[in-house]
Amino acid sequence: xxxxxxxxxxxxxxxxxxxxxxxxxxxxxxxxxxxxxxxxxxxxxxxxxxxxxxxxxxxxxxxxxxxxxxxxxxxxxxxxxxxxxxxxxxxxxxxxxxxxxxxxxxxxxxxxxxxxxxxxxxxxxxxxxxxxxxxxxxxxxxxxxxxxxxxxxxxxxxxxxxxxxxxxxxxxxxxxxxxxxxxxxxxxxxxxxxxxxxxxxxxxxxxxxxxxxxxxxxxxxxxxxxxxxxxx
Length: 232
What we know:
Structural class: mainly alpha
Radius of gyration: 20 Å
Oligomer: single chain
Shape: globular
Order of helices and strands: HHHHHHHHHH
Strand content: under 5%
Number of helices: 10
Number of strands: 0
């Protein structure tokens, strides 16, 4: 009986350690990618003349400023801890007042594009971080842990970038596409944002968006290959 208690206790410790490891290597990179994404929207909006995000305290990397209790914490953490076959999440959109822009269509295009581009930039920086870690600490006992965190960081940012470029409202891709659509068509799409949101949710829940892993893997391999060739 005593040995049974010892086994259960040890198993509990292993589960806690595994959960902590997964939170550190999967959730924290995802959280930073999400916050940087929203920060980029607000930063570019300020550059284009709208200081709404700044005045509302959203021009920051502080997760508490961007958090949505369900989308930022509950769903992603549940997916990680309970090994769900799919995972998704979101942050509160950064407020943008288009009336402060000089050219609404062009300025909204750059504000929308800033989010995905910021995640691609982070993934590229992380790829060079991986290359430098290979050069200077490949023989270290900490290298496997560093490699795992960097891989997760690259993956989180590229998934966020590629996913947000889907041309469906309320994603950034729809607002990027709006720059090239007639105003009447774009207005109709905006009016049907709820319908496109339901389509998006259906695609997520059914796993139909698994094809996004193809461009994500392509970009990750391209960034890592380039960084390794330059650094090593």
